[in-house]
Amino acid sequence: MDSDIALPAVPNRSGSPADLAVRCSADYPDTDAFALVGQNWSLSQNEWRLWDGKGLHLTQSGNVLHIRSEEDPEAAEQLQWVLGAGFCAMLLRHGSVPWHAAALAFGDSAILIMGDSGKGKSTTAMALIAVGARLLADDLVVPVIKGDDIVIPPVFLNLRLTRQTTNYFDVQGVAGADGKISVSVPQAPDDRAIPLRAIYVLGDRVDEIGAPVRLPKTRAWGELLKNLFARAVVPAFARSAHAGAVARRMVDRIPVFEVHAPEGLDRMIGMAETIRAAVES
Amino acid sequence: MSAQNQKSDVVALNSDHLSAEIDGEIVVMNIASGRYVSIGGPGVFLFQMLSEGPRPIEELCLGARDRYEVEEAQCATEVEAFVQRLCDEGLAVRTAS
Q1: Using alpha carbons only, how large is chain B's radius of gyration in Å?
Q2: For residue B92, what are the contacts with CB-CB under 8 A and spacing of at least 6?
Q3: Helix %, strand %, coil % for chain B, to 5?
Q4: Is A213 on the interface with B (CB under 8 A)?
Q5: Which residue in A10, A64, A133, A182 has the most C-beta neighbors within 10 A?
């Protein structure tokens, strides 16, 4: 990376020739130059453009990502969008399929935690860390299919938690513009990709902790794709069939469970213990 | 609109969808909404016909009757219900010919 703006958890200057340069730009690209135009994206053979409707535009041309912003692009909310939308678009362009999930490992078994915003994904991840899991990723996960295995490489070892959660688990971090606390998880360095063993999809919160319920493959496929990162731009990179096929391979090999986080942080540990016992059995 | 006009309506799948065949069913997701439906039985055959390109309603009916040996009236009802379901989920568009 060679970036004009500060990126969280990633060095601005890698020291070796950069795979990607991130530049702030004063100009908007000429939209007439793009062959395909969607709701918030446009695409030509060598370039794509995304905008968030609030004055932030991303354009990739070759190995340069141009950022044009009405506001300070390093403001936390916009930066999260840069990381989410921009990098996912690049991943899709190169044939990788990004998922909106937290990834953790118990020993040599990785799990994904998926769910809509507000269902407790990051809080569940923190509870799993409290019972012995190692964080592999939060928010953005890119599984790699290696032969018969699907493995999860570690990336961006940060959790974004509510202040209430950080207080409960006694961890500290940096507050963002949205009030969430970005917590760098202290753990021994380990860059191994871990085989994926199970996926847990968070449903609505409940009063009582229940056992995870395994989903039939048809429903598991749909629930996975609901958590496809940057789903709206998938067609722009002709990746629709690929994303559907990757989800198909995942549900063929990996059990997908629905689980419901309990109300109350004090009961999250109980749910985390249930998941750990299932993974380690 | 007369029933005769409706049979000539053309149905086309929305290009922005994801689909997969799983355990004899086809699961289809509307990319924009994130909603998905599971299609089984004769619907699988009809969806495969539509996956090859836009089709008039009457062509879907003829194909289903030929494959499943079902009465014309019943076939028309079920094809209409299938097409309506796809349209309601934003997975297909129906246009008058």
Answers
A1: 13
A2: B11, B12, B13, B14, B50, B83, B86
A3: 45, 25, 30
A4: no
A5: A133
3-state DSSP: chain A helix, strand, coil percent, rounded to 5? 30, 30, 40
**Hey, what are A154's tokens?**
């570690």
Q: Are B92 and B15 in contact (CB under 8 A)?
A: no
pTM of the model: 0.82
Residues 34-73 of B with CB under 8 A from A: 34, 36, 38
**pLDDT tens digits for range A216-226:** 999 999 999 99
User: How far is A184 from A14, CA to CA, in rounded Å?
Assistant: 20
Backbone angles phi, psi at B37, to 5 degrees: -130, 150
The ipTM (two decimal places) reads 0.86
pLDDT band of A25, cuts 50, 70, 90 = confident
- Provide the pLDDT for residue B1: 45
- Give the Cα separation of A76 and A84 in Å (integer): 12
Helix (H) / strand (E) containing B68: helix B57-68
- A174 and A8 in contact (C-beta within 8 Å)? no
Ranges of beta strands (E only) in chain B are 10-13, 17-22, 25-30, 36-39, 55-56, 92-95
Decide if B31 and A240 are in contact by the 8 Å CB cutoff.
Answer: yes
Q: Tens digit of pLDDT for each residue in A30-57? A: 655 656 666 666 666 556 666 666 667 7
Distances from the Cα of A243 to the Cαs of A3, A230, A268, B23, B57, in angstroms? 29, 11, 32, 18, 30
